[in-house]
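User: I'm writing a tutorial on reading structure tokens. Could you give me a worked example: one chain, its sequence, then its tokens, then a sentence or two explaining what the tokens reveal?
Assistant: Sure. Here is the example chain.
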Amino acid sequence: MKWIFIGLALLVVLFLVYIKYSLSQNVNSLNPEAFRQKMANSQILDVRTSREVANGKIKGAVVANIMSGDFKDRVAKLNKEEPVLVYCQSGVRSAKAANDLQHMGFTEVYDLKGGMSAWRAAGLPVE
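And here are its predicted structure tokens:
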């Protein structure tokens, strides 16, 4: 019985890794410093929950929780012809959001590799 649970847990982990990999294949990932350098001429999208955002966000970011029902309506207001920089807490949800944005017709989408955790670890500012 123990081995069944271990096997199922391993399958779930492998499935999640596969999803993360497949979602991020067509998305440009940037490390925190490259993300910061690209911010001047881009739209910034924070896809975290309001609770996460309450602990600080990147200056100028538009907040649109990817888990909310109005996510696509909120991001549809962004300019599809301008670069969009997307981030979440760790990089999983933002990879999905970046993939969704590309399917919605956004032409240039970048994901913050490692998310807000990596941003803070790099000592970059939050508001």
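What the tokens reveal: The beta strands are 28-30, 43-46, 62-63, 84-87, 109-112. Helices lie at 2-24, 32-38, 50-53, 71-75, 92-103, 115-121.
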